[in-house]
Amino acid sequence: MILITGGAGFIGANFVLDWLNVVGEPVVNLDKLTYAGNRDNLASLNNDPRHIFVQGDIGDAALLAELLQTHRPRALLHFAAESHVDRSILGPDAFIRTNIEGTFQLLQAAKAYWSGLPAAEQSAFRFLHVSTDEVYGSLEAHEPPFSETTPYAPNSPYAASKASSDHLVRAYHHTYGLPTLTSNCSNNYGPYQFPEKLIPLMILNALRNKPLPVYGDGLNVRDWLYVGDHCAAIRRVLEAGQPGATYNIGGCNEKTNLDVIHTVCAILDQLRPMADGNHAALIQFIKDRPGHDRRYAIDAAKIERELGWKPRETFETGIRKTVSWYLENSAWVERVLSGDYQNWIQTNYTARP
Ligand code: NAD
Ligand code: TYD
Question: How far apart are the first and last CA of the chain?
Answer without folding.
Answer: 46
